UniProtKB/TrEMBL annotation:
<comment type="function">
    <text>Component of the ribosome assembly machinery. Nuclear paralog of the ribosomal protein P0, it binds pre-60S subunits at an early stage of assembly in the nucleolus, and is replaced by P0 in cytoplasmic pre-60S subunits and mature 80S ribosomes.</text>
</comment>
<dbReference type="GO" id="GO:0000027">
    <property type="term" value="P:ribosomal large subunit assembly"/>
</dbReference>
<dbReference type="InterPro" id="IPR043141">
    <property type="entry name" value="Ribosomal_uL10-like_sf"/>
</dbReference>
<dbReference type="GO" id="GO:0000956">
    <property type="term" value="P:nuclear-transcribed mRNA catabolic process"/>
</dbReference>
<protein>
    <recommendedName>
        <fullName>Ribosome assembly factor mrt4</fullName>
    </recommendedName>
</protein>
<dbReference type="GO" id="GO:0005737">
    <property type="term" value="C:cytoplasm"/>
</dbReference>
<keyword id="KW-0690">Ribosome biogenesis</keyword>
<keyword id="KW-0963">Cytoplasm</keyword>
<dbReference type="InterPro" id="IPR051742">
    <property type="entry name" value="Ribosome_Assembly_uL10"/>
</dbReference>
<comment type="similarity">
    <text>Belongs to the universal ribosomal protein uL10 family.</text>
</comment>
<dbReference type="GO" id="GO:0006364">
    <property type="term" value="P:rRNA processing"/>
</dbReference>
<feature type="domain" description="Large ribosomal subunit protein uL10-like insertion">
    <location>
        <begin position="125"/>
        <end position="193"/>
    </location>
</feature>
<dbReference type="InterPro" id="IPR033867">
    <property type="entry name" value="Mrt4"/>
</dbReference>
<dbReference type="Pfam" id="PF00466">
    <property type="entry name" value="Ribosomal_L10"/>
</dbReference>
<comment type="subunit">
    <text>Associates with the pre-60S ribosomal particle.</text>
</comment>
<dbReference type="GO" id="GO:0042273">
    <property type="term" value="P:ribosomal large subunit biogenesis"/>
</dbReference>
<dbReference type="GO" id="GO:0030687">
    <property type="term" value="C:preribosome, large subunit precursor"/>
</dbReference>
Amino acid sequence: MPKSKRAKVVSLTQTDKKGLETKTQLVEQIQQCLDEYKAAYIFSVDNMRNAKLKDVRLAWRNSRFFFGKNRVMQRAFGFSAQDEYKPNTHLISEHLKGNVGILFTNKKHEDVVSWFETFAELDYARSGNPATDTVKLTAGPLTEFAHTMEPQLRALGLPTSLKRGIVTLDNDYLVCNKGDSLSPEQARILKLFSKPMAEFKIKLTSAWRDGEFSEL
């Protein structure tokens, strides 16, 4: 009788070896970037969206982004002046804390700072995000929704009904007050009514350029 794939046991040795290879590759890639690029910037992200980060990568296709795995990246830069890969790269390691990433680039410092200071994109808020505005819905026909959406809207807490096949809001409805921590239902309603309240933005926090490190 053939063995079940679900019952197959993967040895820790194999798993650890694969993980070690991945970490080693990341260290090598970062050190290669230190050799190829003049500058490295540490950045944080407000309202992280993978699709939007992908768009930023495309806009900066001649640069390199690394995000996550801080401890592994610290190995590439070095933990102290004694084991750093290049002058002052251990200072990068000291600032790799929390949800941050690294941008390697050869662009001029002024151009890098200017681009990220002006770049921001609106997106829909998620559960737990603060409401940036008070949103009230006025009673009446909701012609933007097909009749099949009415049960879903009602399940979200909206006082809706079908009148002659048209989704109708029976009473005025307060979706949220400014400053509220949004519930999953509120976030879903705001998205359905095309009201974005989150801003995807990358903030540069520090920079290493030609061996010199500075906070921004």
